[in-house]
């Protein structure tokens, strides 16, 4: 168990109920701030290769802005991450209709999703455990769901997000975390004050997959996988994001950038992707036991004011979201990846490892 320092901070109210922010840090300077509302990773701080403390996730400085956020900044996502096409499926031998919140489809479980729920936090020796109950009337999915999300700081400058759940009826589950990562420095105005995030064109990305799921003409997941070889989505080796985003690759016109699922071979906890920035010498490696990884380059992020009044814009961050394939509940070959039987325990893990490297030599520090 990694020694950590913790503090619990009152952070406003939600429907007259107090909301708390849990701050967790280790001796080497890795620190997390986790909010009970939405199970949100509000901050992720780490020293870069030059000794500057960086906050590596987009977010807000107050609870009010999170309650009015439609971008799921840092949020826990569930019961079903990503799309359910047409907001409909069959579960528990009956037709299920979910609220359509995106062009006639259900995205991230709609307004009844984890990201709009007040969770009950409890400090544990190396982190915080969040718990919540969801009724069928609340989510639109069969049964009563008992879910938990645990954030833990581990040794080696890494942290873990554990998802657990059980339901009393057949249902479908696919949890993830929707943090927007940005590893480079912000830009400054003429008075030397941080003003905006730069684009992620200088970030390098590697994805440990030889395949991607294609999108149809409407930008919906097709359920079909194609080789990444010789495509704009070939990240089998570290590749600068500017090569596909600036200008936008022709195969990414429909989605406005990367918004694709990559199946990751193997089972159990394994590496999924690696993100790095030569500007700070920071590297973030994502591990999970999920079926694959959804990569999203903030294609639809509007111009908004975030932490420290810094402006966030399109393509200023990237989400690395381990999860089941989008719309898997409606794809016969993928449905088994999300089905959960009555009384069966759902248990999944995401792990992020932070490290520093020398930008001029690309060697670990």
Give an overview in words:
This protein is mainly beta and 365 residues long. The chain has one domain (5-364): Beta-galactosidase, Chain A, domain 5 (Distorted Sandwich), CATH 2.70.98.10. Helix content is 4%, strand content 45%. The protein has helices spanning 63-67, 136-139, 242-245, and strands at 5-14, 17-25, 31-35, 40-47, 53-55, 75-77, 83-84, 88-91, 94-97, 106-107, 120-124, 127-134, 145-154, 158-167, 171-172, 176-178, 186-188, 194-197, 204-207, 211-215, 221-227, 239-240, 259-263, 270-277, 282-288, 292-296, 304-305, 311-312, 319-323, 339-340, 345-358, 363-364. The longest helix has 5 residues, at 63-67. The protein is globular.
Short description:
One of its GO terms (molecular function) is aldose 1-epimerase activity. With 365 residues, the protein is mainly β.
Give the % helix. under 10%
Reported for the largest beta sheet, the result is:
10 strands, antiparallel
Q: Quick one: CATH class?
A: Mainly Beta
Distance between the termini: 24 Å
What overall geometry do the principal axes of the alpha carbons give? globular
Number of strands: 32
Q: How does CATH name the architecture?
A: Distorted Sandwich
Radius of gyration: 20 Å
Strand content: over 45%
Question: How many H/I helical runs?
Answer: 3
**What count of structural domains?**
1
The computed structural class is: mainly beta
Q: Extract low-pLDDT stretches.
A: none
What fold name goes in the CATH topology slot? Beta-galactosidase, Chain A, domain 5
- Taking all residues together, what is the mean pLDDT? 95
GO molecular function, one term: carbohydrate binding
EC number: 5.1.3.-
GO biological process, one term: galactose catabolic process via UDP-galactose, Leloir pathway
InterPro entries: Aldose_1/G6P_1-epimerase, Gal_mutarotase_sf_dom, Galactose_mutarotase-like, GH-type_carb-bd
